[in-house]
Specification:
Elements lengths: L1 H22 L4 E12 L4 E11 L6 E15 L2 E12 L12 E16 L2 E15 L4 E16 L4 E12 L5 E15 L2 E12 L3 E11 L4 H10 L1
């Protein structure tokens, strides 16, 4: 009887470990990211973004995300955005031959408010998403709301710290989607570019993932380019 109990406990423990391994929770994954805000007029800019996410730091593809949008700068502390994203996702940690990735077309509306308290720079980002998902054998449409509060603390003219917490709320079944907690060290490379290296704790209802993040931010002012093109027409 005791042997049966021990065997059952060992089987449950092994199954739990295998399940965690298949989800990739035991691995440190990585997100490699690019973000750009490309100013094209006094009140308009184009958002550009590319993210490549891996279950492990340098291998085992998880997700590619390409996103763009048109920003309207209401003033220096308020920005409204209408945008589109394309996402392809490998939903399993294990790699199989000829596996089919999920695909998503996403439309989003976004509003950003900024304020400063002492030396702390705060950013509040509100986003609504309409998600058109293709799982290969079926399709689905989902809606989601997101809120992110971000705080940036300048250390010197070159170095800064960046923190954020972002909550995802599903607007259908299972209200809680995920929560992302992030901290990073940032470096201003030039007046319009920076690099951030940080850690992300990505929590879902039944899983938590640890991710290293490396982000490149480049925000060129392209107003002069568009004016020159307009002048030649």
């Amino acid at each position: 009887m005791i042997k049966k109990i021990v065997f059952s406990l060992m089987t449950i423990g092994f199954a739990s470990q295998l399940s965690a391994q298949q989800a990739g929770e035991d691995e440190w994954g990585a997100w490699y990211m690019y973000f750009g805000t490309n100013k094209i007029a006094e009140r308009f800019s184009i958002h550009t973004e590319a993210q490549f996410r891996f279950y492990e730091t340098a291998s085992n593809f998880n997700q590619m995300l390409l996103r763009t949008g048109l920003n309207y700068h209401i003033d220096k502390n308020a920005i409204a955005t209408l945008g589109y994203g394309y996402i392809t996702t490998d939903g399993t940690f294990e790699e199989f031959p000829n596996e089919t990735n999920n695909k998503e077309h996403r439309i989003f509306q976004q509003f950003i408010l900024k304020n400063k308290v002492w030396e702390f720079l705060f950013e509040h980002r509100y986003r609504l998403e309409q998600r058109f998902l293709d799982f290969g054998d079926r399709t689905d449409t989902q809606h989601r709301g997101r809120y992110r509060i971000q705080m940036t603390l300048p250390l010197t003219d070159t170095f800064f710290l960046n923190f954020y917490d972002e909550l995802f709320i599903n607007l259908q079944d299972d209200l809680f989607g995920q929560n992302r907690l992030y901290g990073a060290l940032g470096i201003h490379v030039t007046s319009n570019s920076s690099v951030q290296v940080g850690y992300l704790r990505n929590q879902f209802a039944n899983a938590v993932f640890d991710r290293v993040q490396i982000g490149i931010f480049y925000n060129p002012d392209l107003k002069g380019v568009f004016k020159k093109k307009g002048a030649t027409n």
